[in-house]
Design a protein that fits this description.
By secondary structure, the chain is mainly alpha-helical. The protein is built from twelve helices and no strands. The chain has two domains: about 120 residues; about 140 residues, no CATH class. Helices cover about 75% and strands about 0% of the residues. α3 runs antiparallel to α5 and α10 packs antiparallel against α11. It holds the Pfam family DUF2157. This is DUF2157 domain-containing protein. Keywords: Membrane, Transmembrane, Transmembrane helix.
Length: about 350
């Protein structure tokens, strides 16, 4: 980590060089240095204030959870659902207050308020889903999952954050599982759920790339996790669908590497390398009936990883320059990160 002293010294040398070349006068250089120091001080103070706020909020929430948990078993079902609903409503109101300028007047909000609002909206989605789940228990989990997904998506639109997008991903895969379980599609085998999860991952990838989500890399990470899991899910049913699992995993890996040619996002190349590194050793182990020993299998995994990494490097060097690519990591306006 670069120390503050090193940063100050580097900045001073750069300003002195500008003064020497005549680009700035000594007075202008001092004014620039003072302005930079003041801005850095304000930013540091705001960050620490935000950190303290998150820690304080977390402690309050943990204390409330511990207090309710101590008497949870003594409460009836409706009262439990009511308590969770109160938390959801309060969190939602807090999130709306944090980003009210963005919601009411379409004004950009500071990153600190956006992150606070996004976190509160995630809490709203989680507690509202839990409240509905407790109220309906033990009838179904599909409705709570869908409610959580809708609220998480609405919260992400209102205050885009990486945490909000991850919560959307979690609720989407939970809703998919609950819906398929409700109609009896995953009672005997995992293949249908695996294929559905793979398709869901592809949808996430399309949204992250073509809709240009503010948190594009996070969206692609969710996509990669879902597609690779979905491709591997047939293996949970034994050897019946082993060949299909290897083929799907390889196809997913090749797809990510191919897409990387047009969208220069590092998540794509990592997903491609991981997919190839998983699929090829699995196939070799299966096709040889486990005849190769552990040491040889380790060697194969290493060679495949090196080959996949080499392919990734070639793709990275062979494509268009990063600054001329078609795939920006997210909009630059409004202080929204590309994480």
């Amino acid at each position: 980590m670069v120390s503050a002293r090193t940063t100050d010294e580097t900045r001073t040398r750069a300003l002195q060089a500008l003064v020497t070349r005549g680009t700035l006068s000594p007075e202008q250089a001092r004014a620039v240095e003072d302005a930079l120091r003041e801005a850095e001080g304000d930013g540091s103070s705001a960050r620490w204030t935000e950190i303290v706020g998150f820690v304080g909020g977390g402690l309050v929430f943990a204390g409330a959870v511990a207090l309710v948990a101590a008497s949870w078993e003594d409460l009836d079902r409706l009262l439990r659902a009511g308590l969770l609903l109160v938390v959801a409503v309060l969190s939602g109101l807090g999130g709306i207050a944090a980003v009210s300028g963005r919601l009411l007047r379409r004004e950009p909000v500071p990153d600190t308020r956006r992150r606070v609002g996004g976190t509160l909206f995630v809490l709203t989605a989680v507690t509202a889903a839990m409240a509905l789940g407790v109220a309906l228990e033990p009838d179904t989990l599909t409705a709570p999952a869908l409610l959580g997904l809708v609220l998480a998506a609405a919260g992400y639109v209102a205050a885009p954050t990486a945490v909000g997008l991850l919560s959307c991903g979690a609720f989407s895969v939970w809703a998919l599982w609950s819906a398929m379980e409700a109609v009896g599609l995953i009672e005997n085998e995992m293949l249908p759920y695996g294929l559905a999860t793979l398709a869901l991952g592809l949808v996430w990838g399309a949204l992250a790339l073509w809709r240009r989500l503010p948190n594009q890399r996070t969206g692609l990470t969710v996509s990669a996790a879902f597609t690779l899991f979905g491709a591997q899910a047939p293996l949970f049913d034994g050897d019946r669908y082993a060949l299909l699992a290897y083929a799907l995993t390889t196809a997913v890996a090749v797809l990510y590497l191919a897409v990387y040619r047009w969208w220069r996002v590092w998540v794509l190349i990592v997903a491609g390398v991981v997919g190839i590194t998983i699929a090829v050793p699995e196939a070799i182990w299966d096709w040889t009936d486990g005849a190769i020993g552990g040491a040889l299998l380790l060697l194969v995994v290493g060679l495949v990883l090196l080959a996949a990494s080499g392919l990734g490097i070639l793709l990275h060097r062979g494509g268009p320059a990063a600054d001329a690519s078609r795939g920006p990591t997210g909009p630059t306006g409004g202080g929204l990160p590309a994480a």
